Amino acid sequence: MTDPAITANGLRKSYGDKTVLDGVDLTVAEGTVFSLLGPNGAGKTTAVKILSTLISPAPASGEIRVGGHDLAASPHEVRAAIGVTGQFSAVDGLITGEENMLLMADLHHLPKAEGRRAAAELLERFDLTDAAKKPAHSYSGGMKRRLDIAMTLVGSPRIIFLDEPTTGLDPRSRHNMWQIVRELVTDGVTVFLTTQYLQEADELADRIAVLNDGKIVAEGTAEELKRIVPGGHVRLRFTEPTAYQGAVSALNEATPDDDALSLQIPSGGSQRELRAVLDRLDAAGIEADELTVHTPDLDDVFIALTGGATIPNQPNQPNQPNQPNQPKDAVR
Ligand SMILES: Nc1ncnc2c1ncn2[C@@H]1O[C@H](COP(=O)(O)OP(=O)(O)OP(=O)(O)O)[C@@H](O)[C@H]1O
């Protein structure tokens, strides 16, 4: 087995009296996407800054290794192995996209010809060739983000840190960015991602860690995390009061809502469980007008684990808190 791309043991950081990271352990396997989730101010950016050598951890922290190097002993080697795209763009708007890329190539001390080749290749890969000679301030938000990541890749880093790479992007640009992340991982790059969007972590991350009050409160795959919160159910809705009453009698474990003529039955949402409910309705000769399956999603996990802390915004719903029990489900 290869060594993990990133390991942190007992990562700690305080600002004055405020403890931001209180003994965080992280392991990120090579060639995977690891997503750090947490409410605003949880310390995600602080973790990224420490792991990318921008700020120092508290002396009481344990060993941190990035790209096979000890962060404290070999920060230069760590820096050579990583790329960072922060929340604030590194793009200089006054010069062209191509000039931004060449500047990065110079910073990485690439020979001129190699720098030009890398810049041209990356501009092509990120669909920026047509805009390459235009000043970057004329780029759309999505183009600037793509240029930002292209600049991060000039030095061919094996590990990249993406701190909220899609915040503020429209859905199409967000999906483009997800595709870029997937392609990077296919090429073997390790991605450490912080995001405001739970759906993004669900789409991209091999593993997700939830940070709350300076500690990792849960870690696992999206599916594993969803399994730790209860709340899966099937909801049946009727228009006919007689059919509704029949269903109430047939499904005695269901929670009825007389006003809405609906029933809620606890369920993990598997095919077998759904069939069992439908079979019991069939046996009673009842047909529901609507059947909705609600499986816990990362919103539910987030709210359950972070004690109702402000939930990060969801795509297309800027600044709108999500409710834990709103189904985002299949309706049959
Ligand atoms: N240089 C600093 N000096 C003092 N406090 C700081 C400093 N940098 C961060 N903090 C505090 O540390 C806490 C964690 O900040 P951080 O930016 O890491 O959170 P975050 O999880 O990335 O939040 P967001 O999702 O809002 O970006 C916050 O309370 C923040 O105010």
UniProtKB/TrEMBL annotation:
Stretches of the chain forming a coiled coil according to its record: none
BP-aspect Gene Ontology terms: daunorubicin transport; doxorubicin transport; response to antibiotic
One annotated GO molecular function: ATP binding
Region: Disordered, residue numbers: 308-332
Membrane topology: Peripheral membrane protein
PROSITE patterns: ABC_TRANSPORTER_1, ABC_TRANSPORTER_2
Domain named ABC transporter: residues: 6-238
Key words of the record: Antibiotic resistance, ATP-binding, Cell membrane, Membrane, Nucleotide-binding, Translocase, Transport
Biased composition (Low complexity): 312-332
EC number: 7.6.2.2
Cellular-component GO terms for this entry: plasma membrane
Compartments, record wording: Cell membrane
Family: Belongs to the ABC transporter superfamily. Drug exporter-1 (DrugE1) (TC 3.A.1.105) family.
Protein name from the UniProt record: ABC-type xenobiotic transporter
